[in-house]
Please model this.
Amino acid sequence: MTELPRSTPVKEGVNPEYIIDFLNACEKADSEIHGITIARHGKVIFEAYNAPYAKDIGHIMHSFTKTLTNTAVSLAFTDGLLTLDDPISKFFPEYDGTEVDNEFYRACTIRNLITMRNGQQRSIGGNEWRPLKTSWKEAYFKVPFDKEPGSTYMYSSGNSYILSYIVQQLEGKTAHELVQERVGKKIGLSDFPWMRSPEGVCSGGNGVSLTAEDMLRIGLLFLNKGKWNGEQLISEEWVDYAFGYKDPIPPVNGVQYNYHWEHTGDLWCAKGMFGQTCGVVPCLDMVFTITGADKNYISSKLFQEIVVDQVKKDPEEVVLGDLNPEDPAREGSPYKMAGPVTTMEDVLLQKGLRMTLEGKNLSVPCHAEVKPEYVLKPEENKDGVTCVEICFTDDTVTYAMTDARGRHEIICGLDHWVRGTTTMTGGYLHHQYEQDITLVSAEAYWCGENTLMMEWRYPEMAFFDHNLITFEDGCVKVDRWVNMNSQDTSRPTLICR
Model:
């Protein structure tokens, strides 16, 4: 993979203080950044990761996946296999004459699916379908078409699944295979995973994991009208549709949704749930990407106000100021800046190098004496947990639970962080994402005389869990909750004896 060119903020006309202010504002707004990249004039001017999240760890993208699905549609469009005005009934003759077949269904087009105006009765989310073991296509068409397609905006991941399904039928390969062969390999995307349905079709609306740099490369491709190193990978016409330059869609609540690129102010953003964002700023020849946990969805608004608006006010050439000698120790660092740096650039660089979410919590000085090992039977519970084990050593606490999926454990450092992997059940707290094995970084600390807190961070997800264990006379109670979720954010207390 060819490395993207590097530069410094000042050399590309960006005051580093704006980036520092943006990072601080996100922290203040509880918009948690896991990874961030910023490029201007095709050069990376800032990149940083909040430990335990890292440059080479893919992050679940949620609905940012739709950008790749729509890219797959663009390739089928370029190949002449479909048009935007094709009715979807053309691709599903099996529903002719069935209860699905009505005037609204017949009127629904490829364009209606992409622009989220398909005319169905309700929307469909990935969390509804991920646990589903039967046909996702059949589940989609069970939702009635009850209004004129094109008339009403209603966001639905089901539409993107049907687009993925259509592309696979036409191209004879999955959306993943098509995009990676014709676009991904050429722009340097990592060998990313993409979840498939029980029918073997890429999930369409979600299910991809990418790095922050993967997102940046996609953003640069769209910024440059589908061209990469002189080769037109996506048709310029398609990018014009995607950004709303051609046949713009009327805004809804101030946001113009075009082929999964949302246009507000100077930003065109492709977004995924909980803050996964790729922002393209054509007026500044800039792209930024963020992976994170942003439950208030505020990071792109802050980037507009704190970075974009301020850069637009500055003269075209920013004064360099006092230069520091380039630090040779930065060689090999993923955060290195090319060439000499100003004092504020050095402040920004050091801030990036020191970013961590592995907290500084320490145990209270006095806590209850505990046994080295507990093997406990929970009372009947909603999650079907049949056994809880807690094992103490001098510097670790291992928590294990057994449920219908098997036995799962996480090793926590006592007053420090331990990184490893786990099979721990968590779909009910994690938007129904349930990986067989996931990375985890975990710490335990005594937060009270009889209470032990565990924090579990998953570097591949927006989610992190807390597990509070309360030792009482005659029983142990376990409470578990998550930082944010589309459904429940906590589980019923386990009462164990």
Residues 319-337 have pLDDT under 50 and may be disordered. The chain has three domains: 10-58+211-353, 64-187, 373-496. The longest helix spans residues 157-171.
